[in-house]
Design goal:
5-stranded mixed β-sheet; elongated
């Protein structure tokens, strides 16, 4: 009766659960191993693990019956690369600097749909892009995105083959001669047009800027102006 209960009730229920939990643990261990490894270390681990799996499948499918030694080879071929990769990833063997681990890779940039946009179509001045035109500006009135509190904006470089960027600092100088201050709040990368460069801050908000601030292009300082945050 007991054996019948085990074979008909326990095994059909418990065994699949155990298999699923084991698979989940294995996938999680592999993911952590890749995450805590370096970029190249993760590629090598993935390549070796794939080779081990292919070898395991090939060996298993070519044999009608696997004896004890062959089963051991199959298990080692599948498990050893993962074990070695995990040991390296968690620092048990070898040495990987924390800064080099894949866990420090920045996530994909998410730009809100209503992020403010500033543009350039020449090397003389910034402009606010409109459909089919770009209106020159000396004052950039920023309406912050409603989807995030942090600073996020798009720089649309429309000048073909010419590099521009946007640098935001505090405002210095006289009213009729604004100049960049000593504090830099945001700097987009240099981008050759035509291209759109997003700037996304994870901790700097528009409220962290002074009432008025200065913006300019690092390559063409004459492209400059005063910025301020306004209500929609």
């Amino acid at each position: 009766m007991k054996n019948g209960f085990v074979s008909r009730i326990v095994l059909p229920v418990v065994l699949p659960v155990v298999v699923l939990l084991t698979m989940a643990a294995l996938v999680g261990a592999v993911a952590l191993s890749l995450l805590y490894n370096t970029h190249y270390g993760s590629l090598m681990l993935a390549a070796v693990a794939a080779a081990g799996i292919l070898f395991t499948v090939s060996l298993a499918s070519s044999q009608e019956r696997l004896g004890g030694p062959k089963r051991t080879v199959v298990l080692l071929a599948a498990a050893v690369p993962l074990l070695i990769g995990g040991a390296v990833g968690f620092g048990l063997i070898g040495g990987v600097d924390d800064a080099d681990r894949m866990i420090n890779v920045q996530p994909l940039i998410v730009v809100p749909d209503d992020a403010p946009i500033i543009a350039a179509e020449n090397s003389l001045e910034f402009c606010i892009g409109q459909e089919g035109s770009c209106e020159p500006i000396d004052v950039w009135d920023v309406v912050p995105s409603q989807q995030t509190d942090t600073i996020t904006f798009l720089f649309d470089n429309r000048e073909v083959g010419v590099q521009h960027n946007v640098v935001i600092t505090d405002l210095a100088g006289e009213d009729d001669d604004p100049q960049p201050g000593s504090t830099t709040y945001a700097t987009t990368t240099l981008v050759a047009g035509p291209a759109v460069e997003p700037y996304v801050s994870s901790d700097l908000t528009w409220n962290d800027l002074p009432e008025q601030w200065y913006f300019f292009c690092a390559i063409h300082p004459n492209m400059q102006g005063v910025g301020q945050v306004v209500a929609e």
